[in-house]
Amino acid sequence: MALPNIFEGPGALLEEVGAPGIFLGLGALLLAPVLIPIVAGVGKPVAKAAIKGSIALYEKSKGAFAELGEVVEDLVAEAKAEIADRKEKDILTAANPD
Question: What is the mean pLDDT of the chain?
Fold first, then answer.
């Protein structure tokens, strides 16, 4: 459904939306002062709960990433030690060919 050009004529918009659209618009306009505080009252605790959950998830993930960093550091240190051992063995083998 294309949007009507409201400058075509005075009845173009009225023809496009029809009576049900006009009644829904007027109803929404009349109920807005009542519904907005209700939605805001319900929405605030929901938003606050979502923010609390996000903060808790952030804190948990921060700890998990710290542990992951320690594991990776340990693996890197072990790999470097193995490389150093291998080089030392290669040097000793080259120096003392039996």
Answer: 82
